[in-house]
Amino acid sequence: MPQVTGTILLVQESRLRLLDDQGRGYVFLLAPDAPIEPQDLPGLAGRRVCLRYHASPKLLAGVVSNLGVTS
To answer: Does domain 3-69 have CATH number 2.40.50.320?
Structure first.
């Protein structure tokens, strides 16, 4: 499962935009079984996180299955 580390730039409902260390932007959705709830995402805006995700053939966004705050 792919993994990416970066800073959360923007949060809206269960969606987030992440900027990685190389300057690439990503759009993600939280999976229903993710260890974090959508209402917890706004508190992570501006924080560095490491997340694991999978691609969905019907979406342009990755689907986050695991997310952790890094230092």
So the answer is: yes
